[in-house]
Design brief:
Elements (H helix, E strand, L loop, with lengths): L2 E4 L5 E5 L5 E10 L3 H12 L5 E4 L6 H9 L5 E6 L32 H17 L7 E3 L3 H4 L1 H14 L21 E3 L8 H10 L4 E7 L15 H11 L2 H9 L2 E3 L26 E6 L3 E6 L13 H15 L16
Parallel strand pairs: 3-4, 3-8, 3-9, 4-5, 5-6, 7-8
Antiparallel strand pairs: 1-2, 10-11
Keywords: Carbohydrate metabolism, Hydrolase, Magnesium, Metal-binding
Cofactor: Mg(2+)
Protein name: ChbG/HpnK family deacetylase
């Protein structure tokens, strides 16, 4: 059987040899949230490291996102199932446990009726299919399939029935009847001043096999609008994932960029000798995500104590840092008038 190989752009292409390599999906959540978010994700794909996006079927930017996706076949597009933000596709009478008095999702995440949740999820999936979009995979807004066990069970059932991959649950089962998924999931935010540096460290430590990095890039929204919450964080992540240093690192580290639609063609790797990256630390950390405030997610760190052989790219960065450290600094001048008398 023939598998894909990396092209100059880093995307997997048909016809390569079946060799074990580092495969990376970089997924932008919230496609369809607004035109500004859509444009940012599209830019991060065409000029950056984004390979995949997940589309929100109930948000005002849906039609614009579909228009962009249909003109950009290299971008894998899945369904970003949303039960916590905006208005549902179902009438509120059909899903009373999911909505408040005004018909918007309540975001309380407790007391949900699983049958009502499945009904709304199926309607969101049907809307994608009606728009002639075949979803490459499934994931959820605000990570509800990780936080709410009943939602994970519903997604798993739908994914297996429709043969659609889904974003892995950090502590869920793998193999057997589990849906097709990556071996690792990196959940982090890259919206601070160290976002690019932290992303480069993840790339340097990336093991062989399949990994997904999730993110939330987008252009900033107008201040005072409902969509402006978290706008600065989106813009910062957009800058991180379009940084030329990221693409250069991916090239030098020989990381193969794919999306979920290509996951089935990746050669199966042996069972990892350590848990998935997001599984290595049961500690929960509070992080800010756009339109969600803070949420508890697994701390995403490489396995403690696991030493990896450094690549030539990593060694080069280390040598450059050493050269900077070795430069002698001129001693600071101290004016006599400023010295304290003992």
């Amino acid at each position: 059987m023939q598998y894909g190989r990396a092209s100059e752009s880093g995307l997997i292409q048909p016809g390569g040899g079946a060799i074990l390599a580092k495969y990376l999906i970089v997924n932008a959540d919230d496609f369809g949230f607004s035109r500004r978010v859509n444009d940012g994700i599209w830019h991060a794909h065409t000029a950056g490291a984004i390979t995949s996006a997940t589309l929100m079927a109930n948000m005002p930017g849906f039609d614009h996102a579909v228009w962009l996706a249909q003109r950009t076949p290299s971008l894998g597009v899945g369904l970003h199932i949303n039960l916590t933000y905006g208005k549902p596709l179902s009438p509120k009478e059909d899903i009373p446990s999911l909505v408040g008095l005004e018909g918007y999702f309540s975001d309380r995440r407790v007391g949900w009726n699983p049958e009502e949740a499945e009904l709304e999820i199926e309607r969101q999936l049907d809307k994608l299919l009606a728009a002639r979009m075949t979803p490459t995979h499934l994931d959820t807004h605000h990570h509800i399939h990780i936080e709410v066990p009943s939602i994970y069970a519903i997604l798993k059932k739908i994914a297996l029935r429709r043969r659609i991959p889904m974003r892995r649950h950090p502590w869920a089962e793998t193999g057997g009847d589990a849906p097709l998924q990556t071996e690792r999931l990196i959940m982090d935010t890259f919206d601070d001043g160290n976002g690019t540096a932290r992303l480069l460290r993840y790339l340097e430590d990336l093991p062989e096999g399949t990994t997904e990095i999730m993110c939330h890039p987008g252009y900033g929204e107008d201040k005072g609008t409902a969509a402006s919450q978290g706008s600065a964080a989106r813009a910062a992540e957009l800058q991180t994932f379009t940084d030329p240093a990221v693409r250069e690192a991916i090239r030098q580290l020989d990381i193969r960029l794919i999306h979920y639609g290509q996951l089935a063609d990746v050669p199966a790797s042996p069972v990892p000798d350590v848990p998935a990256i997001a599984e290595t630390a049961p500690e929960q950390v509070e992080i800010f995500l756009p339109q969600s405030g803070t949420t508890a997610v697994p701390l995403s760190v490489p396995a403690a104590g696991r030493r990896r052989r450094k690549s030539s790219y990593s060694r080069g960065r280390g040598k450059r840092r050493m050269r900077i450290k070795r430069r002698k600094r001129k001693p600071a001048r101290v004016h006599r008038g400023n010295r304290r008398k003992r």
